[in-house]
Protein 1
Amino acid sequence: MVEQLQDQGHPLLTEEEMQHLAEVGQVLKRDEGHTFFREGEETDFALLIKKGHIKVVLGTRPRIVAIRGPRETVGEMAAVRPQPRTASAIAMDTVEVLLLPATAWLKFLYDNPRAMHAQLVAADERVSQATNKVVESDLAVEQKVAKAILELAGKGIGRSTDSGLAMPLSQQDVAALTGASVDSVKKIIRALKEQKMIGTGRQVLYIRRNEALAEIAEGNRTATL
């Protein structure tokens, strides 16, 4: 019985649960850069991502602390525990979400204990991920940049082009994602470009040598020395 309960953490939402939420939510389609809510705002709706990706950003010196993708929820705790938003939610590409009023989200969770259990599992996993990022904070900036780029690629962000996998990332975005200074990131990006591991354009970064980036992320190679 215990093992059955533990298994209920996956998937986050079943097809049946998704259909149920579709009946009580409002579909919104927004372009890259749209802010769904800002840190400190007193709003209590939850978002269920149907398509695209949303970056979770916090701090006066903006830092990306998470990236959420299809079938994941954003801002769900504001509906459960009415408090000002602890972070901002910004569309990273073209996004389609289901906006769920707090009352509808709470009723859904109480009516669907399997989904509530899955949300608890997801919340715990997010805490673990945040803890791991703190542990990894001593990694060299170069290594952190490579890891961040590959993590986003692994989430399905980007599109294949003749120039490589194109990801909607500026150097400022990479700095915010890693917590490094923009100047440090520019130096790393320049070194990675010189070794043809990546390429850059206007608000876009191209991955060209995935394996080489992976070696840097694992600490087995460097591009700056």
Protein 2
Amino acid sequence: MDDMDEVLEAVGPRLRALRNARGITLADLAVTTGISESTLSRLESGQRKATLELLLPLARTYDVPLDDLVGAPRTGDPRIHLKPIHRFGLTFVPLSRRPGGVQSFKMLIPARREPVEPTPQTHPGFEWLYVLNGQLRLLVGDRDLVLPPGQAAEFDTSVPHWLGSADGEAVELLVLFDPQGVRAHVRPSAER
């Protein structure tokens, strides 16, 4: 079996997993894509080979690149393609992938109708953050701060801290985290 056969055999299970993860029935998918239920079923079971005519409407419906449907390796694209991490009701989008060193994230705090009870945490390291949108509530030790867009903060993460929305609306921020505890320093350029 060559590489092409292996790639084509993996398409069906990948399509079924994607459909199941999205909670879509074969009947609904048939209506959306214009592909018959029986063809979709045979495609997912591997009884029918994937063709461009079948994969394009599926990629459009699932809103994913065609490469994701066939499991093609990423080539020639220098951008970082890291998947969001969901923890503690927050979303962290990695912007770097340097293990052990300074890590950068875009952090998204969702809007909530009910206020969230702060649960301060501690861990080794040092954090620097910059608010892009929304009103960030930052608890660090005994300090309770509200940071609007354009404000930045840095703190030792061994001090109990918590981040959340100050007004229940969504908040977006950039975060630099250094597990070694080194502070981020902004140095102005020399005057001319």
Protein 3
Amino acid sequence: MTAPLLPDASAFRFAHEFVVPETAIDALGHANNVEYVRWVQDVAGAHWLAICPPERQEAYVWVVREHRVRYRQPAFAGDVLRATTWVGNTGGATSVRHTHLTRAADDALLCEAETTWVLLDPKSGRPVRVDAEVLGWLKG
């Protein structure tokens, strides 16, 4: 058995719940792996919009450099899932975000992900340093 990805336990956590739609189900009768990645990205985006002041949101864009995803248990149509995310190591223009997807009914861990995000200037498309202000938003 593989050890879980190591989260930064001190980080601020953001969570939301959603229902697995029928459209997420594949030929095996459970949520397709691509859907898990979508949910990982969705909760990251929701967290960013919740912490970044509206007047500053156009100044930044985050893009994925790498996803590491560990699938543990299947999700099924109608399941209520909780996506929980928090930011770990941040330096330069990159930030590592951890995400757990759990089933709300029994808190079973279905998926865990570690995603490296790069902060870009949306006008130039070039990476920008995560400054103290942005770091403060990310870490709560």
Protein 4
Amino acid sequence: MTTTSPLLPQIGAIFVAVSDIERARDWYCRLLGIPADSEIMFGHLYCIPLQSGLTLILDSKIFPKRIIDDAPLFHFNTQDIEASYAFLKESGVEVVVPIQHGHWFNFRDPDGNLIMVSQC
């Protein structure tokens, strides 16, 4: 039985709790190779539009309420897992799990959030 729902089968944004909005903005933009030239909104939000249509929202206001988890918050796509792994290692990023099965690995951002990179 199909139910009509006002919710769309889409995800519009992913929130990441960060302790320092300026530092997080600079770190994520450097990681993704994009300029950090958008405005920090309301003193605690920075939105990074992604090619998928999603928006990555860095939020320092929710940081004190977050819980560090051992499950990745999300994954970034890559076409070259080896190059991505080398780039993060050379950038001093904490890689938690090395490349697994030739297509994914996990790392932590400066606030301890667990993120995955996956060759899709």
